[in-house]
Amino acid sequence: MSQYKVVHCNINGQDVEKIVDVRASLTDMLRNEYHLTSVKKGCEVGECGACTVLIDGEAYNSCIYLAVWAEGKHIRTLEGLTGPNGELSDIQQAFIDETAIQCGFCTPGFILSASELLDSGKFYTDDELRKLLSGHLCRCTGYENILRAVKKTMYRRLGKEIDS
Amino acid sequence: MYDMKALYEAENVQDAIRLRLEHPEAQIIAGGSDVLVQMREGKRAGKELISIYRIDEMRGVTLDEDENVRIGSLTSFSHITRDPIIQKYVNVLGEAVDQVGSPQIRNIGTIGGNTCNGVTSADSASTLHALEAIVELTGKNGVRRIPIRDFYIKAGQVDIRAEEGEIQTAILIPKESYENCFGKYIKYGMRNAMEIASLGCSVNVRLSPDKKYIRRCRIAYGVAGPVPMRVPSAEAVANGSRPTQAMIDEFALAVLLDIRPRDSWRASKAFRQHIAVEMARRALTEAILRAGGVIE
Protein backbone atom coordinates (compact mmCIF):
# COMPACT_ATOMS: atom_id res chain seq x y z
CA MET A 1 0.00 0.00 0.00
CA SER A 2 1.47 3.30 -1.05
CA GLN A 3 0.61 6.38 0.90
CA TYR A 4 1.28 9.93 -0.33
CA LYS A 5 1.00 13.40 1.09
CA VAL A 6 1.43 16.93 -0.21
CA VAL A 7 4.31 18.68 1.57
CA HIS A 8 4.52 22.48 1.39
CA CYS A 9 7.72 24.10 2.55
CA ASN A 10 10.23 26.80 1.79
CA ILE A 11 13.51 25.56 0.37
CA ASN A 12 16.39 28.02 0.03
CA GLY A 13 13.98 30.95 0.02
CA GLN A 14 11.39 29.55 -2.38
CA ASP A 15 7.91 28.34 -1.43
CA VAL A 16 7.47 24.90 -2.95
CA GLU A 17 5.18 21.87 -2.76
CA LYS A 18 5.37 18.27 -3.94
CA ILE A 19 3.45 15.06 -3.46
CA VAL A 20 5.73 12.87 -1.36
CA ASP A 21 5.70 9.20 -0.38
CA VAL A 22 5.24 9.15 3.42
CA ARG A 23 8.07 6.59 3.68
CA ALA A 24 10.58 9.13 2.32
CA SER A 25 13.22 10.74 4.48
CA LEU A 26 13.93 14.43 4.01
CA THR A 27 17.17 13.38 2.27
CA ASP A 28 15.10 11.37 -0.23
CA MET A 29 12.79 14.32 -0.86
CA LEU A 30 15.53 16.93 -1.28
CA ARG A 31 17.61 14.76 -3.60
CA ASN A 32 14.92 13.03 -5.65
CA GLU A 33 12.17 15.65 -5.86
CA TYR A 34 14.27 18.83 -5.78
CA HIS A 35 17.62 17.55 -7.16
CA LEU A 36 19.53 19.18 -4.29
CA THR A 37 22.43 16.76 -4.46
CA SER A 38 24.60 18.61 -1.95
CA VAL A 39 22.52 16.64 0.58
CA LYS A 40 24.62 13.48 0.72
CA LYS A 41 23.48 9.99 1.55
CA GLY A 42 26.11 8.74 3.97
CA CYS A 43 25.34 6.42 6.87
CA GLU A 44 21.58 7.06 6.74
CA VAL A 45 21.32 6.48 10.51
CA GLY A 46 22.16 9.94 11.84
CA GLU A 47 25.83 9.37 12.65
CA CYS A 48 27.98 10.85 9.88
CA GLY A 49 26.32 14.24 9.32
CA ALA A 50 26.76 14.21 5.51
CA CYS A 51 23.01 14.81 4.99
CA THR A 52 22.83 17.80 7.37
CA VAL A 53 20.46 20.62 6.42
CA LEU A 54 19.11 23.60 8.36
CA ILE A 55 15.44 23.42 9.31
CA ASP A 56 14.14 26.71 10.72
CA GLY A 57 17.78 27.63 11.33
CA GLU A 58 18.80 24.48 13.24
CA ALA A 59 21.01 21.67 11.92
CA TYR A 60 19.33 18.29 11.43
CA ASN A 61 20.37 14.99 9.93
CA SER A 62 17.88 14.88 7.06
CA CYS A 63 18.29 11.09 6.75
CA ILE A 64 16.42 10.51 10.02
CA TYR A 65 13.82 13.21 9.47
CA LEU A 66 10.60 12.21 7.74
CA ALA A 67 9.89 14.23 4.60
CA VAL A 68 6.31 14.87 5.77
CA TRP A 69 7.65 16.65 8.86
CA ALA A 70 9.00 19.38 6.54
CA GLU A 71 5.45 20.73 6.11
CA GLY A 72 5.57 24.48 6.78
CA LYS A 73 9.32 24.51 7.50
CA HIS A 74 12.11 26.68 6.14
CA ILE A 75 14.87 24.43 4.82
CA ARG A 76 18.33 25.49 3.77
CA THR A 77 20.81 23.35 1.88
CA LEU A 78 24.28 24.19 0.64
CA GLU A 79 22.79 25.35 -2.67
CA GLY A 80 21.04 28.11 -0.72
CA LEU A 81 24.30 29.63 0.50
CA THR A 82 25.67 30.65 -2.88
CA GLY A 83 24.88 33.99 -4.54
CA PRO A 84 22.59 34.46 -7.59
CA ASN A 85 25.47 33.85 -10.02
CA GLY A 86 26.97 30.99 -8.05
CA GLU A 87 29.25 33.19 -5.92
CA LEU A 88 30.61 31.34 -2.94
CA SER A 89 29.69 32.47 0.56
CA ASP A 90 32.46 33.41 3.00
CA ILE A 91 32.36 30.06 4.79
CA GLN A 92 32.55 28.11 1.51
CA GLN A 93 35.53 30.21 0.39
CA ALA A 94 37.18 29.67 3.76
CA PHE A 95 36.94 25.88 3.31
CA ILE A 96 38.84 26.26 0.03
CA ASP A 97 41.39 28.72 1.43
CA GLU A 98 42.16 26.50 4.42
CA THR A 99 42.23 23.26 2.39
CA ALA A 100 39.38 22.01 4.54
CA ILE A 101 38.26 19.85 1.62
CA GLN A 102 39.56 16.74 -0.01
CA CYS A 103 36.94 14.35 -1.34
CA GLY A 104 34.19 16.82 -0.41
CA PHE A 105 31.57 14.33 0.74
CA CYS A 106 31.32 15.70 4.29
CA THR A 107 31.68 19.34 3.22
CA PRO A 108 28.05 20.41 2.63
CA GLY A 109 27.04 19.07 6.04
CA PHE A 110 29.96 20.67 7.83
CA ILE A 111 29.26 24.02 6.14
CA LEU A 112 25.60 23.96 7.21
CA SER A 113 26.47 23.19 10.84
CA ALA A 114 29.05 25.97 10.59
CA SER A 115 26.35 28.28 9.17
CA GLU A 116 24.11 27.66 12.17
CA LEU A 117 26.81 28.62 14.64
CA LEU A 118 28.08 31.55 12.52
CA ASP A 119 24.56 32.93 12.06
CA SER A 120 24.12 32.99 15.86
CA GLY A 121 26.55 35.93 15.88
CA LYS A 122 28.16 34.53 19.04
CA PHE A 123 31.81 33.98 19.80
CA TYR A 124 32.86 30.40 20.53
CA THR A 125 36.06 29.01 21.98
CA ASP A 126 37.96 26.26 20.14
CA ASP A 127 36.49 23.65 22.49
CA GLU A 128 32.99 24.95 21.86
CA LEU A 129 33.57 24.93 18.09
CA ARG A 130 34.83 21.34 18.24
CA LYS A 131 31.71 20.32 20.15
CA LEU A 132 29.41 22.16 17.73
CA LEU A 133 31.07 20.46 14.75
CA SER A 134 31.23 17.02 16.37
CA GLY A 135 28.22 15.63 14.51
CA HIS A 136 30.21 15.18 11.30
CA LEU A 137 32.69 12.57 10.21
CA CYS A 138 35.53 13.46 7.83
CA ARG A 139 38.01 10.79 6.75
CA CYS A 140 40.25 13.06 4.67
CA THR A 141 41.26 16.21 6.48
CA GLY A 142 41.82 15.23 10.09
CA TYR A 143 39.45 18.06 11.07
CA GLU A 144 42.07 20.70 11.91
CA ASN A 145 41.66 22.60 8.63
CA ILE A 146 37.89 22.47 8.97
CA LEU A 147 38.09 23.91 12.47
CA ARG A 148 40.43 26.64 11.20
CA ALA A 149 38.10 27.55 8.31
CA VAL A 150 35.12 27.93 10.66
CA LYS A 151 37.15 29.80 13.26
CA LYS A 152 38.60 32.26 10.76
CA THR A 153 35.15 32.96 9.32
CA MET A 154 33.74 33.50 12.80
CA TYR A 155 36.53 35.96 13.62
CA ARG A 156 36.06 37.76 10.32
CA ARG A 157 32.32 38.10 10.78
CA LEU A 158 32.75 39.38 14.34
CA GLY A 159 35.44 41.83 13.20
CA LYS A 160 38.05 40.27 15.48
CA GLU A 161 41.72 39.46 14.97
CA ILE A 162 43.02 35.94 15.49
CA ASP A 163 45.88 36.14 17.99
CA SER A 164 47.75 33.00 16.97
CA MET B 1 12.61 5.15 1.82
CA TYR B 2 11.78 3.67 5.17
CA ASP B 3 10.24 0.23 5.29
CA MET B 4 7.05 1.24 7.11
CA LYS B 5 3.59 -0.17 6.60
CA ALA B 6 1.72 3.07 7.21
CA LEU B 7 2.18 6.47 8.83
CA TYR B 8 -0.50 8.14 10.92
CA GLU B 9 0.19 11.75 11.82
CA ALA B 10 -1.40 13.09 15.00
CA GLU B 11 -2.43 16.76 14.94
CA ASN B 12 -2.87 17.13 18.69
CA VAL B 13 -2.85 15.06 21.89
CA GLN B 14 -6.49 13.92 21.57
CA ASP B 15 -5.81 12.89 17.99
CA ALA B 16 -2.78 10.86 19.13
CA ILE B 17 -4.91 9.05 21.74
CA ARG B 18 -7.54 8.25 19.12
CA LEU B 19 -4.92 6.94 16.68
CA ARG B 20 -3.34 4.86 19.42
CA LEU B 21 -6.68 3.20 20.23
CA GLU B 22 -7.43 2.65 16.51
CA HIS B 23 -4.00 1.16 15.77
CA PRO B 24 -2.87 -0.77 18.84
CA GLU B 25 0.03 -2.40 16.97
CA ALA B 26 1.53 0.90 15.79
CA GLN B 27 4.78 2.28 17.14
CA ILE B 28 4.80 5.87 18.44
CA ILE B 29 7.48 8.03 16.87
CA ALA B 30 8.57 11.36 18.38
CA GLY B 31 11.88 12.71 17.00
CA GLY B 32 12.68 9.33 15.47
CA SER B 33 16.39 9.18 16.26
CA ASP B 34 15.82 5.74 17.79
CA VAL B 35 12.73 4.49 15.95
CA LEU B 36 13.87 5.40 12.43
CA VAL B 37 17.36 4.02 13.02
CA GLN B 38 15.88 0.75 14.28
CA MET B 39 13.56 0.67 11.29
CA ARG B 40 16.57 1.16 9.00
CA GLU B 41 18.33 -1.72 10.76
CA GLY B 42 15.29 -3.91 10.11
CA LYS B 43 14.29 -4.27 13.77
CA ARG B 44 11.06 -2.33 13.37
CA ALA B 45 10.72 -2.82 9.62
CA GLY B 46 7.24 -3.19 8.19
CA LYS B 47 5.55 -1.53 11.18
CA GLU B 48 2.88 1.12 11.32
CA LEU B 49 3.99 4.40 12.87
CA ILE B 50 2.00 7.04 14.72
CA SER B 51 3.94 10.30 14.44
CA ILE B 52 3.41 12.72 17.31
CA TYR B 53 6.35 14.90 16.25
CA ARG B 54 4.29 17.79 14.92
CA ILE B 55 2.17 18.27 18.08
CA ASP B 56 3.53 21.68 19.06
CA GLU B 57 1.44 21.84 22.26
CA MET B 58 3.82 19.19 23.65
CA ARG B 59 6.87 21.46 23.27
CA GLY B 60 8.40 23.95 25.65
CA VAL B 61 9.34 24.48 29.29
CA THR B 62 7.04 26.30 31.72
CA LEU B 63 6.47 26.72 35.46
CA ASP B 64 3.07 25.34 36.48
CA GLU B 65 0.79 26.81 39.18
CA ASP B 66 2.76 25.01 41.90
CA GLU B 67 6.07 26.23 40.43
CA ASN B 68 7.02 22.75 39.26
CA VAL B 69 9.12 22.84 36.09
CA ARG B 70 7.02 21.33 33.33
CA ILE B 71 8.87 20.06 30.25
CA GLY B 72 6.70 19.13 27.27
CA SER B 73 7.68 15.63 26.13
CA LEU B 74 8.58 16.76 22.62
CA THR B 75 11.00 19.45 23.79
CA SER B 76 14.32 18.78 22.10
CA PHE B 77 17.54 18.36 24.06
CA SER B 78 19.03 21.55 22.61
CA HIS B 79 15.94 23.57 23.54
CA ILE B 80 16.07 22.18 27.09
CA THR B 81 19.73 23.18 27.43
CA ARG B 82 19.06 26.70 26.13
CA ASP B 83 15.85 27.27 28.10
CA PRO B 84 16.04 30.08 30.71
CA ILE B 85 13.80 28.23 33.21
CA ILE B 86 16.00 25.12 32.97
CA GLN B 87 19.16 27.22 33.32
CA LYS B 88 17.78 28.99 36.38
CA TYR B 89 16.29 26.04 38.28
CA VAL B 90 17.59 22.71 36.95
CA ASN B 91 20.75 23.53 35.08
CA VAL B 92 22.09 20.02 35.73
CA LEU B 93 19.41 18.61 33.44
CA GLY B 94 20.38 21.02 30.66
CA GLU B 95 24.02 19.96 31.06
CA ALA B 96 23.10 16.27 31.02
CA VAL B 97 21.09 16.39 27.80
CA ASP B 98 23.83 18.50 26.20
CA GLN B 99 25.92 15.29 26.21
CA VAL B 100 23.53 13.29 24.04
CA GLY B 101 24.87 12.23 20.60
CA SER B 102 25.77 15.24 18.45
CA PRO B 103 24.35 18.74 17.87
CA GLN B 104 22.06 17.40 15.14
CA ILE B 105 20.80 14.59 17.39
CA ARG B 106 20.19 17.10 20.19
CA ASN B 107 18.05 19.14 17.79
CA ILE B 108 15.82 16.19 16.86
CA GLY B 109 15.94 14.06 20.03
CA THR B 110 13.20 14.63 22.61
CA ILE B 111 13.16 14.09 26.36
CA GLY B 112 9.97 12.09 25.96
CA GLY B 113 11.60 9.69 23.53
CA ASN B 114 14.69 9.45 25.69
CA THR B 115 12.58 8.17 28.61
CA CYS B 116 9.87 6.22 26.76
CA ASN B 117 12.40 3.91 25.11
CA GLY B 118 13.23 2.62 28.59
CA VAL B 119 16.97 2.59 27.99
CA THR B 120 19.27 2.68 31.02
CA SER B 121 22.00 4.66 29.24
CA ALA B 122 19.74 7.62 28.35
CA ASP B 123 21.61 10.77 29.35
CA SER B 124 18.51 12.41 30.80
CA ALA B 125 17.40 9.42 32.83
CA SER B 126 19.80 9.41 35.78
CA THR B 127 19.32 13.14 36.36
CA LEU B 128 15.53 12.76 36.16
CA HIS B 129 15.76 9.98 38.77
CA ALA B 130 17.98 12.10 41.00
CA LEU B 131 15.45 14.95 40.67
CA GLU B 132 12.52 12.60 41.44
CA ALA B 133 10.79 13.70 38.27
CA ILE B 134 7.12 13.00 37.63
CA VAL B 135 6.01 11.51 34.32
CA GLU B 136 2.71 12.77 32.94
CA LEU B 137 0.76 10.38 30.71
CA THR B 138 -2.41 11.33 28.89
CA GLY B 139 -4.90 8.74 27.68
CA LYS B 140 -8.61 8.22 27.05
CA ASN B 141 -9.32 8.43 30.79
CA GLY B 142 -7.40 11.66 31.27
CA VAL B 143 -4.06 12.44 32.88
CA ARG B 144 -2.02 10.06 35.02
CA ARG B 145 1.10 11.19 36.87
CA ILE B 146 3.64 8.74 38.23
CA PRO B 147 7.12 9.01 39.78
CA ILE B 148 9.84 8.28 37.23
CA ARG B 149 11.16 5.31 39.23
CA ASP B 150 7.77 3.61 38.78
CA PHE B 151 7.68 4.55 35.10
CA TYR B 152 10.60 2.23 34.31
CA ILE B 153 9.45 -1.39 34.54
CA LYS B 154 12.42 -3.23 33.02
CA ALA B 155 14.99 -2.71 30.27
CA GLY B 156 13.16 -1.31 27.26
CA GLN B 157 9.77 -1.34 28.97
CA VAL B 158 8.00 1.57 30.63
CA ASP B 159 4.56 2.02 32.16
CA ILE B 160 2.60 3.41 29.23
CA ARG B 161 -0.81 1.83 28.80
CA ALA B 162 -1.33 1.45 25.07
CA GLU B 163 -4.77 -0.07 25.66
CA GLU B 164 -5.82 3.23 27.24
CA GLY B 165 -4.37 5.19 24.34
CA GLU B 166 -1.71 6.74 26.55
CA ILE B 167 1.17 8.86 25.38
CA GLN B 168 3.69 10.65 27.54
CA THR B 169 2.84 14.37 27.43
CA ALA B 170 5.22 15.98 29.95
CA ILE B 171 7.92 15.50 32.53
CA LEU B 172 7.66 17.53 35.72
CA ILE B 173 10.45 18.47 38.09
CA PRO B 174 8.79 19.16 41.47
CA LYS B 175 9.71 22.42 43.19
CA GLU B 176 10.77 20.39 46.24
CA SER B 177 13.36 18.63 44.03
CA TYR B 178 15.04 21.69 42.57
CA GLU B 179 14.59 24.49 45.10
CA ASN B 180 18.04 25.49 46.40
CA CYS B 181 19.45 22.31 44.84
CA PHE B 182 22.63 22.15 42.80
CA GLY B 183 23.66 19.20 40.73
CA LYS B 184 26.31 17.63 38.56
CA TYR B 185 26.04 14.96 35.86
CA ILE B 186 29.07 12.99 34.70
CA LYS B 187 29.01 10.81 31.62
CA TYR B 188 31.74 8.27 31.05
CA GLY B 189 32.25 7.34 27.42
CA MET B 190 35.06 6.31 25.13
CA ARG B 191 34.72 9.45 23.03
CA ASN B 192 33.16 12.88 23.56
CA ALA B 193 30.52 12.88 20.81
CA MET B 194 28.20 10.31 19.24
CA GLU B 195 28.68 8.09 22.24
CA ILE B 196 26.45 6.02 24.48
CA ALA B 197 27.38 6.24 28.15
CA SER B 198 29.38 3.37 29.64
CA LEU B 199 28.10 4.80 32.90
CA GLY B 200 26.26 8.00 33.85
CA CYS B 201 26.06 9.50 37.34
CA SER B 202 23.92 12.42 38.50
CA VAL B 203 24.07 13.99 41.96
CA ASN B 204 22.21 16.93 43.46
CA VAL B 205 22.43 18.45 46.92
CA ARG B 206 20.73 21.06 49.05
CA LEU B 207 22.84 22.54 51.81
CA SER B 208 21.65 24.08 55.09
CA PRO B 209 21.38 27.91 55.00
CA ASP B 210 24.78 28.22 56.73
CA LYS B 211 26.24 25.72 54.15
CA LYS B 212 27.62 23.56 56.99
CA TYR B 213 25.39 20.51 56.43
CA ILE B 214 23.96 18.56 53.55
CA ARG B 215 20.21 18.79 53.99
CA ARG B 216 19.33 16.56 51.06
CA CYS B 217 21.40 14.51 48.66
CA ARG B 218 20.18 12.48 45.68
CA ILE B 219 22.30 10.27 43.46
CA ALA B 220 21.28 8.15 40.50
CA TYR B 221 23.05 6.16 37.80
CA GLY B 222 22.42 5.06 34.27
CA VAL B 223 23.91 1.74 33.05
CA ALA B 224 24.45 0.58 36.65
CA GLY B 225 21.56 -1.85 36.19
CA PRO B 226 18.88 -2.73 33.63
CA VAL B 227 17.06 0.54 34.30
CA PRO B 228 18.29 3.86 35.75
CA MET B 229 18.50 3.69 39.54
CA ARG B 230 18.83 5.70 42.70
CA VAL B 231 21.48 4.75 45.26
CA PRO B 232 19.89 4.94 48.74
CA SER B 233 22.95 3.60 50.59
CA ALA B 234 25.08 6.49 49.42
CA GLU B 235 22.32 9.05 49.99
CA ALA B 236 22.02 7.85 53.61
CA VAL B 237 25.72 8.61 54.15
CA ALA B 238 25.41 12.17 52.83
CA ASN B 239 22.03 13.23 54.24
CA GLY B 240 22.51 15.34 57.37
CA SER B 241 26.31 15.08 57.19
CA ARG B 242 28.94 17.78 57.09
CA PRO B 243 30.65 18.08 53.68
CA THR B 244 33.96 16.52 54.69
CA GLN B 245 36.39 14.64 52.45
CA ALA B 246 35.97 11.55 54.65
CA MET B 247 32.19 11.65 54.20
CA ILE B 248 32.55 12.02 50.42
CA ASP B 249 34.87 8.98 50.31
CA GLU B 250 32.43 6.95 52.38
CA PHE B 251 29.53 8.13 50.19
CA ALA B 252 31.40 7.08 47.04
CA LEU B 253 32.19 3.57 48.33
CA ALA B 254 28.60 3.10 49.48
CA VAL B 255 27.36 3.16 45.88
CA LEU B 256 28.78 -0.35 45.49
CA LEU B 257 26.15 -1.65 47.93
CA ASP B 258 23.33 -0.77 45.53
CA ILE B 259 24.51 -0.69 41.94
CA ARG B 260 24.32 -3.80 39.77
CA PRO B 261 26.36 -3.16 36.61
CA ARG B 262 27.05 -5.98 34.18
CA ASP B 263 29.72 -7.02 31.76
CA SER B 264 29.05 -5.81 28.25
CA TRP B 265 31.17 -5.11 25.20
CA ARG B 266 31.21 -1.45 26.18
CA ALA B 267 32.78 -2.03 29.60
CA SER B 268 33.26 -4.78 32.17
CA LYS B 269 31.37 -4.98 35.43
CA ALA B 270 34.60 -4.48 37.39
CA PHE B 271 35.49 -1.36 35.39
CA ARG B 272 32.01 0.08 35.82
CA GLN B 273 32.20 -0.49 39.58
CA HIS B 274 35.59 1.19 39.65
CA ILE B 275 34.47 4.30 37.77
CA ALA B 276 31.13 4.43 39.62
CA VAL B 277 32.97 5.17 42.87
CA GLU B 278 35.14 7.86 41.29
CA MET B 279 32.19 9.44 39.47
CA ALA B 280 30.19 9.60 42.71
CA ARG B 281 33.12 11.26 44.45
CA ARG B 282 33.59 13.87 41.73
CA ALA B 283 29.89 14.56 41.16
CA LEU B 284 29.15 15.06 44.86
CA THR B 285 32.21 17.27 45.31
CA GLU B 286 31.18 19.46 42.38
CA ALA B 287 27.55 19.60 43.52
CA ILE B 288 28.61 20.77 46.99
CA LEU B 289 30.90 23.43 45.51
CA ARG B 290 28.15 24.63 43.18
CA ALA B 291 25.83 24.90 46.18
CA GLY B 292 28.34 27.25 47.78
CA GLY B 293 29.72 24.71 50.24
CA VAL B 294 33.31 24.11 51.25
CA ILE B 295 34.82 20.61 51.50
CA GLU B 296 36.22 20.33 55.03
Overview of the structural elements:
- The complex is a heterodimer of chains A (164) and B (296).
- Chain A has five helices and five strands, in the order E-E-H-E-E-E-H-H-H-H.
- With 164 residues, chain A is an alpha+beta fold.
- Chain A has a five-stranded mixed sheet with strand order 2-1-5-3-4, with helices on both faces.
- Chain B is of the alpha+beta class and 296 residues long.
- Chain B folds into three domains: 48 residues, Uridine Diphospho-n-acetylenolpyruvylglucosamine Reductase, domain 2 (2-Layer Sandwich); 118 residues, Uridine Diphospho-n-acetylenolpyruvylglucosamine Reductase, domain 3 (2-Layer Sandwich), CATH 3.30.465; 109 residues, CO dehydrogenase flavoprotein, C-terminal domain (Enolase-like, domain 1).
- In chain B, the strands form four sheets. A five-stranded antiparallel sheet of chain B has the order 4-5-10-6-7. In chain B, strands 11-12-13-14 form a four-stranded antiparallel sheet.
- In chain B, a hairpin with a 5-residue loop joins strand 4 and strand 5.
- The termini of chain B are far apart.
- Chains A and B meet through strand 4 of A and strand 1, helix 2 and helix 6 of B.
List keywords for this structure.
heterodimer, A: 164 residues, alpha+beta, Ubiquitin-like (UB roll), DNA polymerase, domain 1, 2 domains, five-stranded mixed β-sheet, 5 helices, 5 strands, globular, B: 296 residues, Uridine Diphospho-n-acetylenolpyruvylglucosamine Reductase, domain 2, Uridine Diphospho-n-acetylenolpyruvylglucosamine Reductase, domain 3, Enolase-like, domain 1, five-stranded antiparallel β-sheet, four-stranded antiparallel β-sheet
